[in-house]
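Hey, weird one. I pasted the Nitroreductase sequence into the form twice and got a warning about non-standard characters only the second time. First submission, copied straight from the form history:
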Amino acid sequence: MPDSPRSFTDIVRSRRSVRGFLPDPVPAADIRAVLEDAQRAPSNCNTQPWQVHVVSGAHRDTLSAALLQADREDRISYDFSFDQADFGDGMYRERARVQGAAYYRSLGLERSDTQGRSTAALRNLGFFGAPHVAFLFMPEFGDGVRVAGDIGMYGQTFLLALEARGLAGIPQTMLGFYSDVVRESLGVKPEMKLLFGISFGLADPEGPASEYRMGRVPLAESVVLHDTPGVLDGAH
């Protein structure tokens, strides 16, 4: 835990997606505290639809090996589709392009280095060296969108609870590309769908991409105010 209490604003604005971790396990009491905080996330009709599997130790290593093997054999098994082409040709695609370019640049990889970029992407399946990973599963109600929203709120609460305790995490869409492998490893029923995973632990201050940071667009690009004057005055 940090030496002194931190404000909510500091916690929110300091949180980032870390892609390099120390191998030191997080104390069980801290993991439980993070889970207790995350359990307070809101959900539609208080259904609390999340089912969370936290994997550590030897099971973590075995699962990582299984994921890497599945990747080599091209055994992709999405529960939910993902294709950056779906972002279209506008601002969403451009934001994704800028993020990718900044990340690979932080690793010293040129755009032309396709092999280096592919190898870097596989670090997802090694959980970026994190000693723990939480997999967030959900049942399907209707089209699943509202349930996925609940899981997203749980995930953000989990990430902020990590940050509040001096820990770090990264939500990983790529872990959901191999949902069948994860379900088999963890004994999860087929009706529970894997949305994403969160690798977590202590950030490695000298690890790959340790200086990598992404900003956010100005409020005016995301927020429309209706009869709410003064909010965006002087905003950047």
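That's the output from the first submission. The warning seems to come from a hidden character in my clipboard, not from the data itself. The mean pLDDT is 93.
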